[in-house]
What we know:
The complex is a heterodimer of chains A (258) and B (133). Chain A folds into 2 domains: 5-119, no CATH class; 122-251, Alpha-Beta Plaits (2-Layer Sandwich), CATH 3.30.70. Chain A contains 8 helices and 9 strands. Chain A has helices at 48-51, 53-60, 63-81, 98-107, 109-119, 135-140, 151-186, 221-231, and strands at 5-12, 32-36, 39-46, 87-88, 94-95, 122-131, 189-192, 207-217, 238-246. In chain A, a hairpin with a 2-residue loop joins strand 2 and strand 3. Chain B is 67% helix and 0% strand. The interface between A and B is large, with 71 and 58 residues. Chain B: Belongs to the gas vesicle GvpA family. Chain B: It comes from Streptomyces silvensis.
Amino acid sequence: MTDDLRYVYAVCRPLDAPLHADLTGVGGAPPRQLAHDGLVAVVGPVPERDFGREQLHARLEDLDWLAATARAHQSVVAALATVTCPLPLRLGTVFRDDSGVRAMLQDESDRLRRILDRIDGQVEWGVKVWLGAESAAEAAAPQPSGAPESGRDYLRRRRAGNAAREQSAARAEAFARQLHEDLSRYAADARLHPPQSGPLTDAGSGRNVLNSAYLVPRARSEEFLELVGRAEGTLPGLQVEVTGPWAAYSFTDDPEAS
Amino acid sequence: MTTASRMPSSSLGAPQGGANLADILERVLDKGIVIAGDIKINLLDIELLTIKLRLVVASVERAKEMGIDWWEDDPALSSGARRTELARENEELRRRVEELEQGTRVDGGALGPGTGEERGKKADRRGERERDG
């Protein structure tokens, strides 16, 4: 076991209670706390055969392995988030041994403390707005059924279809901007992420017009969710999706850097 | 979380258990604090990886989608049009992969300080030092 590397999930302030005994992380190994000078790194042993430098690069190409590792990483961070406000590390932060982790806590101490201060007492909520592929355009301009009667009819229908789609896209974007503004005012901090696209998103969920994250005091989460809930259903064809509460993944940049 | 249970399950996305893989990957691969570990993944490699994943999985998924023609009535959005769109997107992604691969070769591809190689060597030295001491 001494050959194992150390995978670091998160850094947090000292915990009042031990980690749940049943909790497992990457590779099925239980994480533990490694304290140094008022900070705690939550670490787990991982085998060199998966996480050595060359091996890791090969492993990352394996979608199933990557998905399992990402879920394991998130499950440890999520468990921590129920008892504290952890600062999550990016997937695959690995050290050779405990002293390497301690050295990191020492070297990065100031930055880690600044971010931990910012996220103290806060959780992250993700909000996405989807413009339904068909429903929005249909709601704006019902398509006549049957084949077009002529070339002119075809062009007219095509123009009408395009105009309806553009209109609903413009309305969706205005809605998303307004929602983001409203939620940002309520939240302690907010981040806009690039819209999600591609195969990993739900098939048929339409076009992602807003993908954002909000840092919200845990105690005010309920009000925040009510605010989101009120926005839902105000425009036909638009779906508002909330995910969370997450650990503050999106708010780990250094407050002093900007 | 009591707050969570108030939301309809469809919009909650069940973050703790069966959370959407896209949401999880977005956060653990792309967010979270970057700290230079002893075994460091090059950030550029991650970007390359997510693009590659999109390419591989996209072709499978899109092929499936093509069996279901959403806009059968609309010639402007026929599967032919989308096939062109898919080809264009794949072309663009391939070009990006090439760019990134070239970047990796030319300048080591490091976004942060030092290249993966340098970090690796430094890490090895540190590891040795600590084993000696």
